[in-house]
Amino acid sequence: MRICTWNIQMGLRLEAVLDAVGSHPDFSKADLIALQEASIHDGRPDAEAIAEALGPEFRFFQATAQMLRGRDQGNALIWRPGTFEPSALEVVALTGGGAIGMTRAERTLLRAIPPQRRIALRAESATMLVYVVHLDVIGFTHKLEQFGAVVADMHARPAVPLTLVSGDLNTFGMPRLQMWRRIRAAAKSAELVELTRLVRRTHWTAQKLDAIYMKPETPYRHRAWALKVRGSDHLPVFADIELPAAPV
User: Fold this and answer.
1) Helices (H) and strands (E) in the chain, counts
2) Contact predicate 125/116, CB 8 Å
3) Rounded to whole angstroms, what are the CA distances from 21 to 69, 174, 242?
4) Residue of 65, 125, 51 lying closest to 94 (CA atoms)
5) Which of 14, 193, 195, 228 has the highest CB neighbour number within 10 Å of its CB?
């Protein structure tokens, strides 16, 4: 199974995104595509246009988190039926405000620059639980709290063989710094493994902002990489996951 996560920057270069999706071989075998900063162009959700570029069999769901400068900004999931058959797709609000202790400096920053409204998408079937996540730009502890909201929601859902959490975590800074350590510690406590740990750059500024996590119930093999295409300020990030075949 192949999953891709990509922040498409409000679709500002939507034609380049569609060209990459429709022509690059890395996308041709994708089963799940998690989008952040999906918008609407000419009355059409970006996820719909991208699903069409992938092929007629693909399905999509897109939800708006907020209006930014008069334009929709949201998350979306595109999937290949047969690989994933979601019975329910829901929006999970990523609220902030106090579950984790913040420093006075961070609280002052969040008052000066109000947090943006962020959401996660939750899609689930009998065999798989998938989250598409976009954390806020401002506030290290604030972002950790938002990630914790996803983990709490995950724990409240029925157990399934495979759980995936992917998206733009906005963790500015090198992976060895504190923010990534704290996110990884929270993920580890939830038995989530970062499939993209060895991917060093997911943004054209050389930052690592995006990740794919998995909660494995069985042994698995995987590989992960970022694709250097100019459809956004973020790079599309991929992970191939090989799981044991189900018994016949």
Assistant:
1) 6, 14
2) no
3) 27, 28, 22
4) 65
5) 195
- 80 vs 54: CA distance, rounded Å: 9
Q: What is the rounded distance in angstroms from the CA atom of residue 162 to the CA atom of residue 84?
A: 11
Phi, psi for 83 (deg, rounded to 5): -80, -40
Model confidence, pTM: 0.90
Please choose, from the candidates 54, 46, 45, 48, the residue with its C-alpha nearest in 3D space to the C-alpha of residue 19: 54
Q: Give the residue from 38, 12, 213, 232 showing the smallest Cα distance to 119.
A: 38
Q: Which of 202, 208, 240 is nearest to 223 (CA)?
A: 240
Tens of pLDDT along the chain (248 residues)?
999 999 999 999 999 999 999 999 999 999 999 999 999 999 999 999 999 999 999 999 999 988 777 889 999 999 999 999 999 899 999 875 444 555 665 555 455 455 577 899 999 999 999 999 999 877 677 788 899 999 999 999 999 999 999 999 988 654 455 567 888 889 999 999 999 999 999 999 989 999 999 998 888 999 999 999 989 999 999 999 998 875 54
Cβ burial, residue 160 (10 Å; 0-12/13-18/19+): middle
The one-letter amino acid code at 121 reads L
3-state secondary structure of 147: helix
Domain 2-242 has CATH 3.60.10.10: yes
Domain boundaries, the chain: 2-242
